[in-house]
Design a protein that fits this description.
The chain is of the alpha+beta class. Helices cover about 30% and strands about 30% of the residues. Strands 1-3-2 form a three-stranded antiparallel beta sheet, covered by helices on one side. Strand 2 and strand 3 form a beta hairpin. Helix 1 packs antiparallel against helix 2.
Length: about 120
């Protein structure tokens, strides 16, 4: 059982949006190396007010949560390097860059708690 005086684990969400299914699979593999609780690949939807339904946009969101710990800078560097190498193998117009990871909130001081693995966010 965890010590009650122990600080809660902080997390950073790393997410990429792409229209390429093969790229989404490759991204999931790369993010999975660093996200200890797995990776989610979800269809991006847009709410239609007329039909009151979420309609698919054709895009995929690839997300994972990385713990903010004493190794966060090393993890960030390794993730950026893996994404760079991935871009050399299969370049794509929607190829993520280290800048994309920075835009998603890659700041060690930010306190982000992942949702329960059993709950899908909408």
């Amino acid at each position: 059982m965890a010590d009650q005086n122990e600080a809660p684990i902080r997390w950073i969400k790393v997410q990429f949006i792409t229209e390429d299914g093969e790229l989404a699979e490759a991204l999931a593999d790369v993010i999975g190396r660093f996200a200890s609780n797995g990776v989610a690949v979800e269809s991006v939807t847009k709410f239609d007010e007329h039909t009151q339904e979420n309609l698919p946009t054709g895009k995929l969101a690839v997300s994972g949560y990385i713990p903010v710990d004493e190794y966060i800078e090393e993890t960030r560097q390794k993730l950026e390097e893996a994404l760079w190498y991935m871009g050399r193998i299969a370049p794509s117009p929607s190829q993520p860059t280290a800048k994309s990871a920075m835009k998603t909130g890659w700041r060690p001081g930010r306190n982000i708690t992942p949702p329960s693995p059993l709950v899908r966010s909408s």
